[in-house]
Amino acid sequence: MASIPEKSAAPPPERSEGPVRILVQTKTxxxxxxxxxxxxxxxxxxxxxxxxxxxxxxxxxxxxxYLYGGVFGQDNRRCYFLVDHGQHSGNDDDVPVLWYxxxxxxxxxxxxxxxxxxQTMLREKYPFTPPPIPQGDGLxxxxxxxxxxxxxxIIRAKLRSEMKLSNGDLTFMRERPDAVEWLREHIELKFWxxxxxxxxxxxxxxxxx
Length: 209
Known about the structure:
alpha+beta, 39% helix, 209 residues, 7 helices
């Protein structure tokens, strides 16, 4: 895992255990890590180290992490990492938002208010107070598995985001030659070659069992 830099571009903010939102914007190619998960954890830990001198902790410290635009297989794409901390009983708009930019080497504080589009994204896609979990019959309903068209698009999105494909993903593709052909025709060559290598390697492994 990539190490968190010791230097910061600005002094740490006043450390408070009150509710806060910490938003970091950057570009996909500037985020260290081998894959989607390691990149997410690097940034979540970086944010928490910057503000509280500790790693991200969803259990003991009630941290909540989100990512928008994490298409890490494509360079120079704008993406946002968000860490929400604490609880708030009032209006979500009253929770302070700290805004930074990750340069690939350090976190820089960004001046001024958040752009309207970013404010809308936070309010509509990532509310500070998560919606309530359905109770009663809502918990008993099983989510329908995605159909073949949705499944192959999910696999394509995983490849573009540098997510690891699950055994279930590879099994689905082995059982659906039409999905393999669709993927070949609808994904960039570098991702297809990565999938092909993984797919063939997995097939070779199965044949030796």
